[in-house]
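Reviewers of the previous submission asked for a worked example of the structure-prediction workflow described in the proposal, so we include one complete record here. The input consisted solely of the amino acid sequence. No template or homolog information was supplied to the procedure at any stage.
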Amino acid sequence: MNKKGFTLLEMTIVILIISI
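From that input alone, the workflow returned the following structure tokens.
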């Protein structure tokens, strides 16, 4: 369980993708 949701980096990437 090294992943509990989105990390700050992942959230930033998702926001950038949505912004495009």
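The longest helix spans residues 8-19. We consider this example representative of the routine output the project will generate in years two and three.
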